[in-house]
Amino acid sequence: MRSKLEWRAARVIAIETPAEDVRAVTFAVDGLRSLFDPGSHTNIKVTIGGSPAIRTYTVLPSEPGTLKIAVKLHPNSRGGSAFIWTLKPGDTTEVTEPENRFELSWRASHYLLVAGGIGITPIYGMAHALAARGQSIRLIYGARSREQMAFAEELRDLLGDRLQTFAQAEGQAFDLAAEFERLPPEGEAYLCGPHGMLEAARNLWRASGRPMSRLRFEVFGDSGRFAEQAFTVAVPHRGRSVEVRADQTMLDALIEAGIDMIYDCRRGECGLCAVNVIETSAPIDHRDVFFSDEERHEDVKMCACVSRAVGGCVTIDTGYRRDTATSGQPASMATA
């Protein structure tokens, strides 16, 4: 369960291509209440395979009354990016008021910003906000090639030598351990990128002895070890067996099947949608950043919003009991 989303009518007013395979779309939004903080995201109603769905994207700095997103067309996409790439000026949909779970603290002596690929989207807004306030910043930005670095030239103009870019095609890679070592004790790091990068960062940060509260990160969806495959999820306490399509999350499939779920972020960060794994006939592709390496290796829990089985069947217990939730205990706190 989650709080009610505030939906607004939105109309496409501009389309840009800031990098190879990246589409930026600007919407005029009816009744948008105010400007939003860097790191905020919006939900967008999309159509996938003829059926309605919801996808979440970071919002970029834009003019009042508008929302702007940048979306990479990914070959393993569940369909959201493909839909965004079909949009053209004049098309309409609905979006939610932006909300922020990846906020700047505004307390640090120095900010290290790290972006991997399309993970530049929240980092881009942070760089603009920090530079406008004269904060001490360093931004390191890596991608497969320079052609895939969205907003790189604009960020170079903004930050000068405070920006350093790394292209894998040129044999370049940034050194997170060295970056963390040079960070002042009161400094903070903000990262967005693929799962592997964030896991490495979290382990290095913990090993350095720095407070975990000074490391903030956000993962984007295409972060699994395997391409999406259809699989089956069995829920014995509900007597149900649900098919999960390749272009669908397990969370969405369970909700569509009428199975009550607790959830919030839909990005594998908050852990509210975690389910207990009873047994599985196939490997589990863990795509969250909530569980530790050890917990993911044990395969006893999985985040339904991002993780999935690699084919086969996974048997779960959601931990949610309607009879418990309606007997005086709040639904969001119900347990098995």
Automatic annotation (TrEMBL):
Residues 5-105 form the FAD-binding FR-type domain. CDD domains: fer2 (cd00207), PDR_like (cd06185). Keywords: Membrane, Transmembrane, Transmembrane helix. It comes from the Bacteria. Residues 229-322 form the 2Fe-2S ferredoxin-type domain. The chain crosses the membrane at residues 111-131. Signal peptide: none annotated. It holds the Pfam family FAD_binding_6. InterPro entries: 2Fe-2S_ferredoxin-like_sf, 2Fe-2S_ferredoxin-type, 2Fe2S_fd_BS, Beta-grasp_dom_sf, Cbr1-like_FAD-bd_dom, FAD-bd_FR_type, FNR_nucleotide-bd, MRET. PANTHER family: BLR2392 PROTEIN, NADH OXIDOREDUCTASE HCR. This is PDR/VanB family oxidoreductase.
